[in-house]
Design a protein that fits this description.
With 536 residues, the protein is α/β, with parallel strands linked by helices. The protein has two domains: 306 residues, Aminopeptidase; 157 residues, Glucose Oxidase, domain 1, CATH 3.50.30. It is 30% helix and 21% strand. It is built from 15 helices and 16 strands. Strands 1, 2, 3, 4, 5, 6, 7, 8, 9, 10, 11, 12, 13 and 14 form a 14-stranded mixed beta sheet that branches. Strands 15-16 form a two-stranded antiparallel sheet. Helix 2 packs antiparallel against helix 14 and helix 3 runs antiparallel to helix 4. The radius of gyration is 25 Å and the shape is elongated.
Length: 536
């Protein structure tokens, strides 16, 4: 664990670093003998990973406080990663692609008439939908084919024919259901509406299906030309039953198509028909440096890649830093869709590392076999064996784990969608830490695993950037934090990343039946426990 003295020294060094020299921040000290778990985990140090986080923060500081795809901070982050892995000797591909960019700067939602005038509160009464158009519009609210009678099956706004001429110049009130939100709002715009309100559907039991009644955050999927907000079923029902309702929506947004890129780095050795892939998204949200989400995963993966750059593995290893993950996994989806059937078959497995240093952490391991029987089902065949390697690692260190569900919220999604075995690590996002978690890991019960998730305080200075000072004081009293990352969780998980990558770099037989090639040294790629005993 890095001491507070070392933390301050590293932070001071980072503050003095010129962004133009960031590619020199951590020259690779790779050794061709870093070919076993014991050797590689010794080479991958916490200080090495933290140097990359310092670089990411410096990049954000020089680029408006963020590293979001489609913005200069992401471009500089991509240059930093690509420069280091290229200098280390990897075959590097910079894969460009277009994506739908959205950034929100502010919004208001007001009931203008009939009295009383009501200023609704963002995040409490309404949410501005992702990819909402910009504008300042005031108009009469026109319900569009709503169904307020249980079970409230709704196709509101799914067809152009749902819209009467009366919607032109007014604000359309739409109901969730049947088709995507973006389709509904685009139809409203085409019919001449100047704005849109999307109310929740209100179907099912209000307790068991509360998510279909309450305020929800929605995305339109692609830019539209009119402001659009979401509201709860209850507020939408009230609107529908208020004759003469007039509202005002203001939205200050940028919503357009932009270009970004993935960074792919491959070893020059190893069989190309049994590729081991390991990925982390490099982009942040547009209003944050993204030090935990996902500077932590990107930095850990980068340090592992640098420290095994001279290793000659049995299987080709392909590292990926994805762009536009925060825009709905666009980069990893683009990559998977760009591959031929043969190229997909050549990928033996995929490892994902998204948020591996949350301040109020748990050690989450993706539940490949769905043994926890919670949420989504199991991953593709072989995912259970990927999980086993991570579980054996944590057990060898006497550390607990939690089963992390394959919710589809990170870049493993496109890979498991085409049947590629997957696994990885996750220390928690906006979920709240439970009493059971505290018993296993310490920390603050009832607080988010990452209290700065998707907020500007996901930085190396979380309190100065708006984080809860009292909460961070509680966390800092229990843990050693380096900005918005927990150094213990990050240190352990960096070793877990190294363990899985080097293990599968030599042998994937347990996952996909491809045998270890003969002629490799006996110890290369072997997993070992804390006492040097072989695990695989």
């Amino acid at each position: 664990m890095v001491s507070r003295t070392v933390r301050r020294a590293l932070a001071a060094t980072a503050a003095a670093t010129l962004v133009g020299s960031l590619t020199l921040a951590n020259p690779a000290q790779a050794d061709p003998n870093n070919n076993s778990v014991k050797k590689l985990t010794k080479a991958v140090t916490l200080q090495g990973v933290l140097r990359h986080l310092d670089a990411f923060q410096s990049i954000a500081d020089a680029n408006g406080g963020n590293r979001g795809s489609g913005l200069p901070g992401y471009d500089a982050s991509a240059d930093y990663v690509a420069g280091l892995v290229e200098d280390a000797g990897y075959k590097v591909t910079r894969q460009p692609f277009d994506f739908n960019f959205f950034e929100e700067f502010g919004s208001t939602f007001t009931r203008v008439a009939p009295p009383p005038v009501t200023n609704f509160v963002d995040g409490t009464h309404y949410d501005l939908m992702d990819y909402s158009g910009a504008g300042d519009v005031t108009g009469l609210v026109v319900p569009v084919d709503l169904n307020l009678t249980p079970p409230r099956a709704s196709t509101s706004g799914c067809e152009a024919s749902d819209f009467a001429a009366a919607v032109a110049g007014k604000i359309a009130l739409l109901q969730r259901g049947t088709c995507p939100f973006g389709q509904k709002v685009a139809n409203a715009e085409a019919a001449g509406a100047i704005g849109a309100i999307v109310m929740n559907q209100g179907n099912g039991d209000p307790v068991a299906n509360a998510d279909r009644y309450e305020l929800f955050g929605g995305t339109l999927g692609a830019p539209v030309g009119i402001p659009a907000v979401s509201v709860s079923y209850y507020l939408g029902e009230q609107f529908a039953n208020t004759p003469g309702l007039t509202v005002r929506i203001t939205a200050d947004t940028t919503s357009e198509v932009r270009s970004t890129e993935n960074i792919i780095a491959e070893t020059n050795h190893g069989r190309g028909d049994n590729v081991v892939m390991a990925g982390a998204h490099l982009d942040s949200e547009p209003d944050t440096a993204g030090i935990n989400d996902n500077g932590s995963g990107s930095a850990a993966l980068l340090e592992v890649a640098l420290q095994m750059a001279e290793v000659k593995p049995n299987n080709q290893v392909r590292f990926a830093w994805w762009g536009a993950e925060e825009s709905n996994l666009v980069g990893s989806t683009f990559y998977v869709n760009s591959l031929s059937e043969e190229q997909l078959t050549d990928i033996g497995l995929y490892l994902n590392f998204d948020m591996v240093g949350s301040p109020n952490y748990v050690f989450g391991v993706y539940d490949g076999d769905d043994s926890a029987q919670d949420g989504s089902g199991p991953g593709p065949a072989g995912s259970a064996q990927v999980e086993d390697v991570f579980e054996e690692f944590f057990a060898s260190r006497g550390l607990p784990t939690n089963a992390a569900d394959f919710t589809g919220r990170s870049d493993y999604g496109p890979f498991i969608g085409v049947g590629i075995p997957a696994g990885g690590l996750f220390t928690g996002a906006e979920g709240l830490k439970t009493a059971e978690d505290v018993a296993k890991y310490g920390g603050v019960q009832g607080a988010q695993y990452d209290p700065c998730y998707h907020d500007p305080c996901d930085s190396l200075n979380p309190v100065a950037d708006g984080g809860n000072a009292a909460l961070y004081a509680q966390l800092d009293a229990q843990y050693d934090l380096y900005g918005n990352v927990n150094t213990f969780a990050l240190d352990v998980n960096a070793d877990a990343v190294a363990t899985a990558v080097i293990t599968f770099a030599y042998d994937t037989e347990a996952v996909n039946g491809v045998p270890r090639s003969p002629g490799k040294s006996h110890g290369a790629g072997k997993s070992e426990d804390a006492h040097g005993n072989a695990l695989l």
